[in-house]
Amino acid sequence: MRLLLIRHGETPGNVLGQLDTAHPGPGLTALGTRQAAALARSLANEPIDLLYASTLIRTQITAAPLATDRGLDVEVLEGLREIEAGALEKATDRESHLRYLGTVFGWAEGELDRRMPAGPSGHDFFERYDASMTRIAEAAAAASTGGPVSVAVVSHGAAIRVWAGLRAANREPGFAARHVLENTGIVALDGDPDAGWRLIHWDGSPVGGLALTDPTAADPTTADPADRTP
């Protein structure tokens, strides 16, 4: 199975630098809407057989142009949601950003006992994200006619970085923390839950090009924690 993990388009929370993880969450900014449209155009030559999104509406809005273009339904899976910020929800200060990122990137290095303040542990996150990937792999196997099946999943920045950072067998230590994933950036992997996953490429920039970046946004999930400045 070929798996494309796509971060949603820009949200108001991204612009404000909020740890914005609660359900159902905000929609997209005007730029985020353009990013979603560009996503469908940019993937015009990419085979996609199945399309998924999380329960947070920003992923479903991002997936909608691609679904329309391909004539696909968007299946919503609860386990694909963003990593909950717990007591840090809506925080915009540097200390909270560092605590959130330090926790989740610890998970990407296998420190799954670490827990978000009043929030989930790494075990909690991987249990529900892995369960969604198992369900997706089962659907891909059922849809296969003998050839490879390509699946697009619109999810969230921290969730994608952390899950791929630990589950990809061919990544080096610290990979997830060092590789950013801006809105509509894509991480591609081959494999399945039984055979394991291999990272093919990590395109951290918006798929429509740098013209669709927002250099003024204070998005807390697009950097290595060590790079954060006051």
How would you summarize this macromolecular structure in one to three sentences?
The protein is an alpha/beta fold. It has helices spanning 12-16, 30-42, 57-70, 94-107, 122-143, 157-167, 175-178, and strands at 2-7, 50-53, 74-76, 150-155, 186-192, 196-203.
| Mean pLDDT across every amino acid position | 94
| Count of DSSP-assigned helices | 7
Q: What is the C-level CATH assignment?
A: Alpha Beta
- Helix-strand category: alpha/beta
Count of domain modules: 1
Q: State the CATH topology.
A: Rossmann fold
The strand count comes to 6
Strand order of the largest sheet: 3-2-4-1-5-6
Low-confidence segments, ≥5 residues, pLDDT <50?
Answer: none
The helix/strand order is EHHEHEHHEHHEE
Straight-line distance between termini? 42 Å
Helix content: 25-40%
Strand % is 5-15%
Q: Identify the overall geometry.
A: globular
Biggest sheet features? 6 strands, mixed
CATH homologous superfamily annotation: Phosphoglycerate mutase-like
Radius of gyration of CA atoms, rounded to a whole number: 16 Å
Give the CATH architecture: 3-Layer(aba) Sandwich
